[in-house]
Amino acid sequence: MRVEVDVLSCVSSGQCVMLVPEVFDQRDEDGTVELLDDTPPSELHDAVRKSAMMCPGAAIRVEEPS
Question: Which residue range is the domain that position 17 belongs to?
């Protein structure tokens, strides 16, 4: 799994941080998403997928290996 974020689409809701703080954080100055780990371990994959689905700005993109 590879994770990408679109900072311009982020609406700073923080749902991703609440779901997977090991992978996502928010910038102090504006609350915009920060990606901490673009290749998270397999035990976090389900939570990362859920955070992408729940993101109100559709700012999280998950690429699955083929």
Answer: 2-63
Instruction: Name residue, tokens 């559709």.
Output: 58
Question: Domain with 40 in it: what CATH number?
Answer: 3.30.70.20
Amino acid at 46: D
Residue 42: φ, ψ to 5°? -60, -30
For the entire predicted model, the pTM comes to 0.94
What is the largest distance, in Å, between two alpha-carbon atoms of the chain? 37
Domains held by the chain: number: 1
Token pair of 46 as six digits: 């389900």
Count CB-CB contacts under 10 A for residue 44.
17
pLDDT single digits (tens) 8-46: 999 999 999 999 999 999 999 999 999 999 999 999 999
